[in-house]
Amino acid sequence: MKKEDIKFFYELRVRYAEVDSQGIVFNAHYLTYFDTAITEYMRNLDYDYRTMISDKGLDFHLVKSTVEYLKPIGFDELIEIGVTANKIGRSSLTWTLMIFRKASTECLAKGEIVWVCSKVGTNKSHLLPENLVYVISAYENS
């Protein structure tokens, strides 16, 4: 996947608290970047995640997360995190994420996040909400 294949990007500046003694983003922060970018993707779609929990009693469990660290990212760099809903299953969503320096096409890191929808309190998979499938599919295929 290339940068031009991604529709949604979330921009942020690397904060001092996120870097290690070498001045490079500490590895655990990449998952925070991914999580934040997915949240902003959902906000961009005007999808109310909290209502899904409160009204439908559905939530997501993270079942897989991977990060490939390709190039170092340093303090105060402006980065763009690209998010794509790569696969929509019956009860799961697979997200592909890529991090770039602002205005660059060189990928610095990439990863995958897999969520499984479940009924709150059961820890059993549940079909994805139809309205969520619809808004993501419409956005990704537009």
Question: What does this molecule look like?
Answer:
- This protein has 142 residues and is of the alpha+beta class.
- It is 25% helix and 37% strand.
- It is built from three helices and five strands.
- A five-stranded antiparallel beta sheet has the order 1-3-4-5-2.
- The model has no long low-confidence stretch (mean pLDDT 97).
How can the largest sheet be summarized?
A: 5 strands, antiparallel
Q: Count the beta strands.
A: 5
Write down the overall mean pLDDT: 97
Helix content: 10-25%
Shape: globular
Q: Report the portion of residues in β strands.
A: 35-45%
Structural class: alpha+beta
The radius of gyration computed from the alpha-carbon positions, rounded to a whole number of angstroms, is 16 Å
Give, in spatial order, the strands making up the sheet with the most strands. 1-3-4-5-2
Please work out how many helical segments DSSP would assign. Answer: 3
Spans of at least 5 consecutive residues whose pLDDT stays below 50 are none
Termini separation comes to: 18 Å
Topology as H/E string?
EHHEEEEH
Which features does this protein show?
globular, about 25% helix, 5-stranded antiparallel beta sheet, 3 helices, alpha+beta, single chain, 5 strands, about 140 residues
List the helices and strands and how they pair.
Blueprint: E1 8-13, H1 29-44, H2 49-56, E2 58-69, E3 78-88, E4 92-101, E5 107-119, H3 130-140
Antiparallel strand pairs: 1-3, 2-5, 3-4, 4-5
